[in-house]
Amino acid sequence: MYYAMLILGLVLLLIGVFRFICMYKEKEFTIFNTFKALLSLILSGLLLVITLPSLKYMIFKEYDVVKGSCTIEIDSSGRSSEAAFKILDTNEVFYFRDIPELDSYGRAVPYYCEVTVTKDHEFEVGYKIFDAKSREIIQTSK
User: Fold this and answer.
1) Which residues contact 89 (CB under 8 A, 6 or more apart)?
2) Domain map of the chain by residue range?
3) How far is Cα 123 from Cα 107, in angstroms, rounded to an integer?
4) 42 φ/ψ angles, rounded to the nearest 5 degrees
5) Measured between alpha carbons, how far apart are the two ends of the chain, in Å?
6) What is the DSSP string of the chain?
7) 45 vs 12: CA distance, rounded Å
């Protein structure tokens, strides 16, 4: 998801700059064309402001592993489903689109989790779910 947001931000930036260059060359500054170019630049700026601070952590694979007791809530209301890992020790919540298969254990049961995130805790990379008592691994992310 991180790289999709980064690439989309770069593409929108190029589209916005290209539109302004075309408007300048053709000397045709209509309100609609200016609006499209500004909207593209604003959206690209927003996406790049969100993703660029974590770029060095993603490139150099500088990750933190957040460990502790956790609960896993599955949200399937909408077109896509996601799993929310709430680390009870630090009170942080991490979201994954990769839904763990925990039917035999149950979802409301507390687990011991290791969630791999970027150093700034902005983007999730992976997870490992362990049994809370035996610390036997139940599932890892794909």
Assistant:
1) 67, 68, 69
2) 2-58, 61-140
3) 23
4) -65, -45
5) 14
6) -HHHHHHHHHHHHHHHHHHHHHHHHHT---HHHHHHHHHHHHHHHHHHHHHGGGHHHHHTT-EEEEEEEEEEEEE-SSSS-EEEEEETTTTEEEEESS----TTT-SSS-EEEEEEEETTS-SEEEEEEE-TTT--EEEE--
7) 9
| Neighbour count for residue 128 (Cβ, 10 Å) | 17
Q: Which residues pair with 64 in a beta bridge?
A: 117
The two three-digit tokens of residue 133, written as one number: 């008592």
Beta carbons within 8 Å of 39's beta carbon, 6+ residues apart? 16
* pLDDT tens, per residue, the chain with 142 residues: 889 999 999 999 999 999 999 998 988 888 998 999 999 999 999 999 999 999 999 999 999 999 999 988 888 777 778 888 999 888 999 999 888 877 655 556 788 999 999 999 899 999 999 988 888 998 888 7
CB neighbour list of residue 114: distance below 8 Å, 6 or more residues apart: 65, 66, 67, 127, 128, 130
pTM summary value: 0.76
Tokens standing for residue 14? 């190029």
